[in-house]
Amino acid sequence: MTRYDELLNPSSSSRTSVDRHAPLYEIKANLFKALAHPVRIRVLELLTAEPAGEVAVSELLTATDLEASHLSQHLSVLRRHRVVTSRRAGSSVLYRPAHPRIVDLLLVAREFLHDTIDATQRQRDELTELPALRA
User: Domain named HTH arsR-type: which ranges (predicted)?
Assistant: First the structure.
């Protein structure tokens, strides 16, 4: 059993109140670790953008332009951290977000990014308005 599995299914109920909450933070951190790669974010955006709610691995390969082994590794991380689920349909494997609120996570991240980029642009614009300095 991995440490992550132990966190999801703790075997000991004799933890102190601080210890009892620590694994929850670790689980949350692992969620963010699962999201901490551009390819995995791209895959999640592709999955959440699909009206049918599922995307075949073959479509993900085309959209991401990755080798199958690399995509497989990223999908494995997302599955292990319960961010996506998969099912076999004939010879295809279909992926979908494991929770409907994954799209909300992505939207908040996109909004944060937009605001950060916007703030950075405003700061650059303000720099150009500062008085010139003499050397």
Answer: 20-117
